[in-house]
Amino acid sequence: MTDAVGPHSDLPSPAAMAEDIEDLKAELRALRAELPSHGQPTAEDPTPNEERQYPPFIFLLEGEELDAELRLLAEWVEGVLVPGILAEPSADARWCHLWTEHWDAVGLLHATWLAWQELTDPTTCGLTGPSIWYRDHYRPHITDLRSPTGPFAGCTKGEHRTDHRLPGRVPSTWHTVEDSG
């Protein structure tokens, strides 16, 4: 930097700093043009009257919609997760072949599957998505699910129990004692 002088000659001159700032502004404008603004509508976004379609969480579904989502989840669990990732069940890493009868396991597996769908798509997550899914979703969820205190705590290789963790209904604003019948 030839235009810096004085005791702080290692610092850029104001003119050089202004040029650097302009370069940074140009780079920022280019990046903004490449990526849609967060929260700002883009040409691909639905119009305000169109509703976005997000994958619904399984606990919010009913009837045919619930049945269809359970079928898709079962295909993923039985076709991808169980044969490809899960290790042999043990006392410290339980698994129940009747996992669909453990509603808390269904919810956890569904959440893991939704994350898998998003994070294994290279167009949205690049090549690091699967690693992020494994670290942030699979590992902690499967650890909780298969722990000795998880949803399969009462199940062993030879025995299945769904009643081991089901609490009675507690009266709340969603249901009353009369609803429990």
Fold and architecture overview:
- By secondary structure, the protein is an all-alpha fold.
- The protein has a domain at 58-146.
- It is 48% helix and 0% strand.
- It contains six helices and no strands.
- Helix 2 packs across helix 3.
- Residues 37-43, 45-49 and 164-175 have low confidence and may be disordered.
SSE topology:
Layout: H1 14-34, H2 63-84, H3 103-119, H4 122-125, H5 129-146, H6 177-180
Strand content: under 5%
Tell me the total number of β-strands.
0
Structural class call reads mainly alpha
Radius of gyration: 26 Å
In DSSP terms, counting alpha (H) and pi (I) runs of 4 or more, how many helices?
A: 6
Categorize the overall geometry: elongated
Give the termini distance in whole angstroms. 84 Å
Helix and strand pattern: HHHHHH
Mean pLDDT: 75
Q: Which residues form runs of ≥5 with pLDDT under 50?
A: 37-43, 45-49, 164-175
Summarize the structure.
With 181 residues, the protein is mainly alpha-helical.
List its salient traits.
181 residues; 48% helix
